TrEMBL record:
InterPro entries: SRAP, SRAP-like. The lineage of its organism: Bacteria, Pseudomonadati, Pseudomonadota, Alphaproteobacteria, Hyphomicrobiales. It comes from Aminobacter niigataensis. This is Abasic site processing protein. The keyword Protease applies. Keywords: Covalent protein-DNA linkage, DNA damage, DNA-binding, Hydrolase, Lyase, Protease.
Length: 175
């Protein structure tokens, strides 16, 4: 079943939809089962986030200010799924529901380690049912995906703005 959700986890137990800080968009695999923000959703509300690629930025000079964006996808061009967790927050004033999610991250594989110290948990299709199934702690699935099945390329900085919603943001740039 596909459902729409907002990126940034708002736990159902939170009193207000906004806690004053932006909701987390990622959950670290190493602490997801023990972190109070994520542990209930991890145990009971895991989801698959279908994508055909994602972006990551490499900090070029270590300053955090000068970053080179990259596009990352499967070598064969196929869509894939990220491990996610979700929750549903109910507005106490009007009963409206807010469905939110975040992506689970892990240590990088060899490819991703060249640009970043984390990567999303990419699940093999054979593991989809297990991730969303009733098992309370499928921790062994939260590991780096094999580098040899992935590809990445430098792209222009237009990707950093939502107003640039055109296919050419994926065009490779000269190295």
């Amino acid at each position: 079943m596909f459902v729409s959700a907002k990126w940034g986890l708002v736990p159902s137990w939170q009193k207000e939809a906004s806690s004053g800080r932006p909701p987390p968009v990622n959950a670290r695999s190493e602490s997801i089962g023990s972190n109070g923000m994520f542990k209930r959703a991890y145990a009971t509300k895991r989801c698959l986030v279908p994508i055909d690629g994602y972006f990551e930025w490499k900090d070029i000079h270590g300053s955090g200010k000068d970053k080179q964006p990259y596009a990352i996808a499967m070598k064969n061009g196929a869509p894939f799924a990220l491990a996610g967790i979700f929750d549903i927050w109910r507005n106490p004033a009007n009963g409206e529901l807010l469905r939110t999610f975040c992506i689970v991250t892990c240590a990088p594989n060899e490819l991703m380690a060249t640009i970043h110290d984390r990567m999303p948990v990419i699940l093999a299709p054979a593991d989809y049912a297990r991730w969303i199934g009733p098992e309370a702690d499928p921790a062994d699935l939260m590991k780096p995906f094999p580098s040899d099945l992935m590809t990445m390329w430098k792209i222009g900085r237009k990707v950093g703005s939502p107003k640039n919603d055109t296919p050419d943001i994926l065009d490779p740039i000269d190295p």
